[in-house]
């Protein structure tokens, strides 16, 4: 094999580089475990209809985006899909098939898609490359990434200023799984990734279209690590310069170049031809898409029937308004809370409460953003420990843990050391598994907000702008009660790498209590209130704002900073606390069956839920956002009192107070996109778990402290949801269906948003979600530019 000099690249054009960029854009980012957010793994394919995106993924990765035939057969036979759902799906999908032919399709077995083979895969089958039968040919690339990014656990640390490509080139000199001839070939590549890319593109000699298909397929072979490299540009831009997806792309192209050299001339021609052709259209997939559509229409039919009830006005003005996060887990508690007391009303809003902050905890933990992953924190807050002794103790604890970690993973450590430290941690395991939660203590003082850079406190104008944004999200004039409670949410579980995914699916995996406290402090600030009044968004002078945290594991709500509540509101606060207790009991009882908690009394049930969070062997402390299915943008009166089964994101929106559609556009470009990302992350983890799921929790090992998890002996990074977050061992706990968005707004206002927001229009028009609107007769669905009644 002879390398081409960097300057000699007559067949490499700008179109080839654009093809590589398009392939990279098809890979969605992923976030670190402690900042985990749910991601739409097909965000880069949103410009394609979902069925066409599936055709590409079928040929390039061997996966499909619908469920196996047996899933739809069971749904049909159980009545989950009804005949009217199937008939409506046939019409919506413009299918030439009838009900009889579609039901007969359920008797035929699944036909797996034919995945196109890379040159490296073909070469690994036929030569002495050291690849054993059944082993992943791209395991060496995954091992490279694991070694490069795993700075906590690797035995010898990588040079941090070395690029991913440069490090690969260095490591191959010592890789005895590669033949000497291949190692010499790698030595001929330029040391700079940009120059090497030119050489490789010239050698592969594909058209731009073929190159795009190949590059996308290669990235999908190491999808977890490709997603991590892509994510660096979103959440750690500085690291992306050394180890972004472009660096990984060059490594993958180099492997393909090595594999191509090992093929005989006829195989090379077949390899080149397969990437030059379009993926074959698979007619049998249209059948299953019709069934998937019917499955989703069945849910919409039931949701439409539930929402058909006319709104019931409140019989008395609210004395307490509790603003919850739109998280689907809040729906149950909100319903029971309003049922517990007629003087309580609830609202739905994004659970970071419009506070785009990074929070610095007291102790050794690193600062973490508490803002939706698609946003960048503008400010920071700090937890000021009331006692310096507590601060020092937390540092000492973390120092001891780090000492053990470094000793365990040092090159000179032995099995004896590992076993001994394991015994030392055994007492903690037993103690934690039987522990009871510590009694509530005073909330640590909160300092800030400060500017992220520079550290100066916010000017009054900035504080007013933050407070105004929150009030507008709640709805102009919506706050009228003497007590407004901002309820963030959090979760609690030990020994759980995916803990952040249970805490929140959007806000960097962090609880909303800090955001709620900050927002409450701003809204109670007299100077801020005067500024709000000057801008026409005044709060009632008698309203006090309080923060709280909803633990989604136990459904207990902790009120924060209650010592600042005016004495005149003390009786009201007491009644609210009692209502919270009754609502928590009802919510726990409703959730218990799905969690397998058989306790009959509330004390026993609460204790069982606490134990789940502290049990190191419990893979399912709670179900998180599993079974999410819809987003409702409407006044609370539309859904109040209705049992939405904990499946609906609820965000406040009053069309009467938004004549220009400005608030609707903000909701459809922020909360709606976030809800869609969460929904499609869960959907993908069910329909294509081999590519987009995190696998079995029982086999997980954490990479790099926070990077992610691998499963068993495979070095492939697993992304998405673990199996145990979706399946109870017998049946799926998450129904795989695309998000149904229901908007209470005029048709023209909704269509105007679609006309202005291309990304939103792509999700709707290409079938990545369903868009519906509420009218006087029920619900109607938007499809191909028309509104059709459900």
TrEMBL record:
<feature type="binding site">
    <location>
        <position position="325"/>
    </location>
    <ligand>
        <name>Zn(2+)</name>
    </ligand>
</feature>
<dbReference type="InterPro" id="IPR018752">
    <property type="entry name" value="DabA"/>
</dbReference>
<dbReference type="GO" id="GO:0005886">
    <property type="term" value="C:plasma membrane"/>
</dbReference>
<comment type="subunit">
    <text>Forms a complex with DabB.</text>
</comment>
<keyword id="KW-0479">Metal-binding</keyword>
<dbReference type="GO" id="GO:0008270">
    <property type="term" value="F:zinc ion binding"/>
</dbReference>
<keyword id="KW-0813">Transport</keyword>
<dbReference type="Pfam" id="PF10070">
    <property type="entry name" value="DabA"/>
</dbReference>
<comment type="function">
    <text>Part of an energy-coupled inorganic carbon pump.</text>
</comment>
<keyword id="KW-1003">Cell membrane</keyword>
<keyword id="KW-0472">Membrane</keyword>
<feature type="binding site">
    <location>
        <position position="327"/>
    </location>
    <ligand>
        <name>Zn(2+)</name>
    </ligand>
</feature>
<comment type="similarity">
    <text>Belongs to the inorganic carbon transporter (TC 9.A.2) DabA family.</text>
</comment>
<protein>
    <recommendedName>
        <fullName>Probable inorganic carbon transporter subunit DabA</fullName>
    </recommendedName>
</protein>
<keyword id="KW-0862">Zinc</keyword>
<feature type="binding site">
    <location>
        <position position="504"/>
    </location>
    <ligand>
        <name>Zn(2+)</name>
    </ligand>
</feature>
<feature type="binding site">
    <location>
        <position position="489"/>
    </location>
    <ligand>
        <name>Zn(2+)</name>
    </ligand>
</feature>
């Amino acid at each position: 094999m002879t390398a081409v000099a960097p300057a000699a690249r007559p067949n490499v054009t700008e179109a080839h580089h654009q093809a590589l960029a398009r392939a990279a854009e098809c890979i969605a980012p992923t976030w670190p475990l402690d900042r985990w957010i749910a991601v739409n793994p097909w965000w880069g394919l949103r410009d394609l209809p979902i069925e066409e995106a599936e055709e590409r993924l079928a040929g390039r990765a061997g996966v499909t985006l619908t469920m196996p035939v047996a899933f739809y057969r069971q749904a049909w036979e159980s009545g989950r899909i009804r005949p009217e759902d199937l008939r409506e799906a046939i019409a919506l999908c413009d299918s030439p098939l009838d009900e009889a032919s579609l039901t007969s399709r359920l008797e035929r077995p699944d036909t797996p898609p034919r995945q196109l083979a890379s040159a490296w895969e073909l070469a690994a089958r036929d030569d002495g490359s050291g690849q054993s039968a059944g082993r992943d040919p791209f395991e060496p690339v995954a091992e490279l990434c694991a070694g490069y990014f795993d700075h906590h656990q690797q035995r010898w640390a990588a040079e941090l200023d070395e690029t991913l490509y440069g490090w690969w080139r260095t490591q191959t000199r010592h890789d005895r799984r590669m033949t000497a001839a291949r190692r010499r070939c790698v030595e001929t590549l330029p040391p700079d990734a940009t120059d090497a890319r030119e050489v490789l593109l010239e050698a592969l000699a594909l058209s731009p279209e073929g190159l795009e298909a190949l590059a996308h397929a290669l990235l999908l072979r190491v999808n977890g690590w490709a997603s991590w490299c892509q994510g660096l540009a979103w959440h750690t831009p500085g690291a992306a310069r050394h180890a972004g997806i472009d660096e990984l792309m060059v490594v993958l192209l180099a492997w393909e170049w090595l594999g191509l050299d090992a093929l005989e001339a006829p195989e090379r021609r077949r390899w080149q031809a397969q990437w030059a052709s379009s993926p074959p259209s698979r007619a049998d997939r249209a059948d299953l898409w019709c069934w998937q559509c019917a499955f989703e229409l069945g849910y919409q039919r039931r949701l439409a029937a539930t929402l058909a009830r006319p709104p019931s006005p409140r019989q008395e003005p609210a004395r307490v308004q509790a603003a919850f996060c739109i998280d689907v887990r809040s729906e149950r508690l909100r319903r029971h809370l309003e049922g517990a007391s007629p003087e309580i009303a609830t609202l739905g809003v994004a659970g970071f409460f419009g506070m785009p902050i990074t929070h610095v905890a007291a102790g050794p933990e690193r600062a973490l953003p508490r803002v939706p992953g698609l946003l960048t924190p503008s400010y920071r807050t700090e937890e000021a420990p009331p006692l310096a002794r507590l601060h020092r103790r937390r540092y000492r604890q973390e120092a001891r843990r780090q000492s053990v970690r470094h000793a365990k993973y040092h090159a000179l450590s032995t099995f004896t050391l590992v076993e001994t430290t394991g015994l030392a941690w055994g007492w903690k395991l037993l103690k934690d598994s039987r522990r009871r939660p510590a009694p509530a203590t005073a909330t640590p003082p909160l300092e800030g907000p400060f500017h992220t850079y520079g550290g100066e406190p916010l000017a009054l104008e900035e504080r007013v702008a933050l407070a105004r944004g929150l009030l507008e999200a709640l709805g102009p004039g919506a706050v009228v009660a003497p007590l407004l409670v901002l309820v963030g949410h959090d979760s609690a579980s030990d020994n759980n790498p995916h803990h952040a995914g249970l805490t929140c699916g959007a806000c960097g995996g962090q609880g909303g209590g800090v955001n709620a406290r900050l927002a409450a402090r701003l809204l109670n600030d007299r100077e801020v209130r005067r500024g709000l009044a000057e801008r026409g968004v005044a709060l009632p002078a008698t309203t006090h704002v309080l923060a709280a945290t909803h633990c989604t594991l136990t459904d207990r709500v902790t009120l924060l900073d209650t010592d600042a509540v005016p004495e005149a509101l003390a009786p009201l606060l007491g009644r609210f606390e009692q209502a919270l207790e009754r609502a928590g009991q009802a919510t726990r009882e409703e959730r218990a069956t799905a969690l397998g908690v058989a306790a009959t009394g509330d004390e026993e049930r609460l204790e069982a839920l606490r134990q789940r969070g502290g049990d190191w062997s419990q893979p399912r402390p709670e179900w998180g956002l599993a079974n999410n299915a819809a987003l409702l943008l409407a006044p609370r009166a539309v859904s109040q009192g209705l049992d939405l089964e904990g499946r609906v994101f609820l965000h406040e929106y009053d069309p009467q107070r938004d004549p220009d559609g400005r608030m609707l556009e903000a909701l459809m470009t922020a909360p709606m996109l976030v809800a869609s990302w969460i929904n499609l992350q869960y959907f993908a983890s069910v329909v294509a778990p081999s590519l987009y799921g995190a696998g079995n929790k029982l086999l997980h090992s954490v990479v790099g402290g926070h990077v992610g998890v691998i499963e068993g002996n495979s070095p492939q990074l697993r992304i998405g949801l673990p199996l145990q977050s979706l399946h109870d061992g017998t049946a799926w706990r998450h129904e795989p269906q695309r998000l149904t968005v229901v908007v209470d707004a005029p048709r023209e206002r909704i269509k105007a948003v679609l006309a202005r927001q291309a990304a939103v229009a792509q999700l709707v028009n290409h079938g990545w979600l369903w868009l519906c609107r509420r009218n006087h007769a029920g619900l109607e669905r938007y499809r191909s530019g028309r509104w059709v009644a459900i």
